[in-house]
Design goal:
Elements: E1 3-5, H1 14-21, E2 27-35, H2 37-42, H3 50-63, E3 70-73, E4 76-80, E5 84-90, E6 96-98, E7 101-102, H4 107-122, E8 137-142, E9 164-167, E10 171-173, E11 176-186, H5 192-207
Parallel strand pairs: 5-8, 8-9
Antiparallel strand pairs: 1-4, 2-11, 3-4, 5-6, 5-7, 9-11, 10-11
Length: 209
């Protein structure tokens, strides 16, 4: 994927970047409740997969916030134009595999691509974990067995700056439904404001059926 190198001399948050990179634990995770009543009301009549629709909405949210498309190696910060999405795909035997989806802002196009990739993985594929060579990616994981209140992720080191988005079990709320969703980010690149923008854009995409 194409990207643009960020000029640290003119970047408005260069000081924060250097400050948080010195932290032993520079990541933070935020969990909110996402409203999915409209999705659940229409999913059967319109044959909508809540899992695939969530992936599309999360991809929309990630692309709405430039900082969530930034990655660094050493002092080189790159902002990518478009990300791959790497969701965890559950298998019937209780195991899982990873896949890599090329995000497309057209929902129908991305839906067809996602369905085909998931079928490919479930037909038989290796674990396919990122060996660290892929930067222009975000990790996604659904835990449909749990209505959780917080979530933390395994991280290989303090410089891992790939966002991780998780979501849980869809549960009734009043006359509708909602679901817990978490994003974990590197504070050298992302602040609370950008996390708020992500959730706002993701919620809008969830509702835009």
């Amino acid at each position: 994927m194409t990207g643009t190198r960020v000029d640290l001399a003119t970047w408005s948050r260069a000081e924060q970047f250097q400050f948080f990179r010195a932290f032993e634990r520079p990541h933070f995770a935020t969990t909110v409740r996402i409203e999915v009543s409209r999705l659940m009301a229409q999913r059967k009549a319109r044959n909508i997969s809540p899992f695939r629709h969530a992936i599309f909405a999360i991809g929309t949210g990630l692309h709405a916030v430039p900082e969530l498309r930034m990655r660094f190696r050493g002092d080189i910060v790159t902002q990518y134009d478009r990300l791959q999405l790497s969701p965890t795909i559950p298998l019937d035997n209780g195991d899982f595999r990873y896949t890599y989806l090329q995000f497309n802002p057209d929902r129908a196009t991305f839906e067809a691509h996602t369905r085909a990739k998931i079928e490919e993985v479930r037909a038989g594929a290796p674990l396919n974990a990122n060996d660290g060579s892929i930067q222009d990616v975000a990790y996604l994981s659904c835990m449909p067995w749990l209505d959780y209140s917080s979530l933390d992720n395994a991280l290989p080191n303090a410089d891992d700056c790939i966002p991780r988005v998780g979501w849980g079990k869809i549960v009734p709320k009043g006359d509708g439904f909602d679901v817990a969703m978490t994003i974990q980010v590197h504070h050298a690149l992302v602040d609370g404001r950008q996390v708020g923008q992500f959730f706002e854009a993701t919620q809008s995409a969830i509702n835009a059926l």
